[in-house]
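Ticket #4471: structure export looks truncated?
Reporter: QA, pipeline team
Priority: medium

Steps to reproduce: submit the single chain below to the structure queue and open the exported record.
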Amino acid sequence: MTPLQTAKEYLLQKGVDYEVFDVRENPRSLKEMVDISGKRQVPVIVVGDDHRVGFDPREIDLMLAAVDL
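Actual output as written to the record:
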């Protein structure tokens, strides 16, 4: 599984709603992703005003806890 697939599965297991933007097909989404993260790497996970690049379940849990999810 890719980091993107793993992140999606992790969020599903936690019952967290999320939105996926296809940066391969949508130049606007790609630009927004690079503006947010400074990188051209997926996944970029955004929770509130915070973001992380890549999949790290501990970091995701910390971001979710910060917004009471």
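Status: closed, not a bug. The export was complete when the record was re-opened. Leaving a note from the reviewer for reference: The longest strand covers residues 44-47.
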